[in-house]
Amino acid sequence: MADQGAKKPNAKGGGKKKEVKKETGLGLSKKKDENFGEWYSEVVVNSEMIEYYDISGCYILRPWTIAIWETMQAFFDAEIKKMKIKNCYFPLFVSPGVLEREKDHIEGFAPEVAWVTKSGKSDLEVPIAIRPTSETVMYPYFAKWIRGHRDLPLKLNQWCNVVRWEFSNATPFIRSREFLWQEGHTAFATKAEADVEVLEILELYRRIYEEYLAVPVVKGKKSENEKFAGGLYTTSVEAFIPNTGRGVQGATSHCLGQNFAKMFEINFENENREKGMVWQNSWAYSTRTIGVMVMVHGDDKGLVLPPKVAAIQAIVVPVPYKNTPMEEIYDACSKTVDTLTKAGIRAEADISDNQTPGWKYSHWEMKGVPLRIEIGPKDLEKNQVRVVRRDNSAKEDIPVSNLVEQVQDILVKIHENLFNVAKEKRDSSIKVAKTWEEFMEALNQKKMILAPWCDEQAIEEDVKKRTKGEIGAAKSLCTPFEQPELPEGTLCFASGKPAKKWTYWGRSY
Ligand code: 86X
């Protein structure tokens, strides 16, 4: 089947045909609640995060995107360094022998592997794969580098791109053929140490979503069906997109157990000269995080950026008026930017003179800048500025003398409000279902379903079969660590057998 993947915002030319309303600048032609898919494509393009590319499923990440990525990267990188995890870089290319060394893990994924078969016009003697993930690239060297217990733990991370040649519905950030991520790979002498790290990393992922992107997530464990097949168990943070009624796996932290150690012979000698096998973890989050943020917070005016990750937190717009000298207003604008910048707030002035203030307002709203600061003659007179919030449009006049303090305060409030609104929406999308009928009803209402489950793989397969359809089957999202009480005698929603746990279910990305 040909790629029917990448949805483009307009038939041709990825968003070139902007609806330009005079005075108010570029707008969105689709509403979030009416046509979510096209709304999303328009937002990521018109906000200048993404440019569509001439290879299906690949996207250009523009500076507005990379600034967000770099902020999350700086946070995560600093945190893992505190955990004594070291950065490294392994090659992009994988030799076929190494890739296939671990057959079980590769088997289901094989169709997604991209290969280089030529250099110039001549065929390569041996085709070379492009990494879809780096287990098979790294673990032979783990085997080489780990000799004795003094070589443990070995804790590595790399920031890189990976390629998975997917054939189904590419969506910017959420599912693309090439994406950026970090992949952590660690090896320990004991399972206990590995178990601790799995949850420490998962907590960092929760913090990226909740403290940086203002997106609520559920921490939990994946079912046997949904876990990484090569590992022992998989934990994840799960987000939810109310508009589409789909769950989205936000990041994963796996305990690999000793499966890979066996295959790659990653052995060590302990203090007593006995041979042991390492316990391994792997974990990753990707640029998908950014897509989840756009989907959760964006509105009909465009992107809405949480202040922590916004490249520009406050945009200062001069509002000239008939007889007031422009210079005074411009001076006040650059002074405001200086003051905020010195206080560590990312502020810029939009002093271009070929656009009206109204056009600038729409432009920066489209780009999701958390705060707009307007400065006009009245403000000069009163020694104040007018501040307008992107998240709720609230306006406030702030005395220049108190600018930094109040702007900092408002930025914190914007984050809190974004998180709270998102959490309320998410929570009101959760439906408890105790029977199949309740489950199906909630699924048709695009809910995220919390249901008592017998925890049997065959039953999950059954749920998938019974819910198969145009828009995809339902599956388990995760078993939340925070378990509601499960009264004795509670039955599984799908099998009628005794339930063992509460698990989230739904359609997903
Ligand atoms: C699973 C597992 C794991 C390291 C993580 O989730 C964290 C970081 N890796 C990745 N996975 C694959 O193993 C895989 C393998 C091939 Cl060959 C492929 F084409 C696609 C894959 N997708 C996911």
Q: What report would you give on this structure?
A:
This protein has 509 residues and is α+β, with helices and mostly antiparallel strands. The chain folds into three domains: 63-296, 2-Layer Sandwich (BirA Bifunctional Protein, domain 2), CATH 3.30.930; 307-420, 3-Layer(aba) Sandwich (Rossmann fold); 430-508, Translation Initiation Factor IF3 (2-Layer Sandwich). It has helices spanning 36-46, 63-82, 96-100, 103-107, 135-145, 191-212, 259-264, 288-297, 326-342, 357-366, 377-382, 403-428, 436-444, 457-467; strands at residues 19-21, 25-27, 50-52, 59-61, 86-87, 93-94, 115-119, 122-130, 154-163, 178-188, 218-221, 233-241, 246-257, 267-269, 275-277, 279-286, 314-318, 347-349, 371-375, 384-389, 395-399, 430-432, 448-453, 475-480, 501-508. A hairpin with a 5-residue loop joins β20 (384-389) and β21. α2 (63-82) runs antiparallel to α6. The structure holds ligand 86X.
Give a quick rundown of the structure.
It is built from 14 helices and 25 strands.
What descriptors fit this protein?
25 strands, Rossmann fold, 509 residues, BirA Bifunctional Protein, domain 2, 14 helices, 3 domains, Translation Initiation Factor IF3, alpha+beta, binds ligand 86X, disordered N terminus, 27% strand, five-stranded mixed sheet
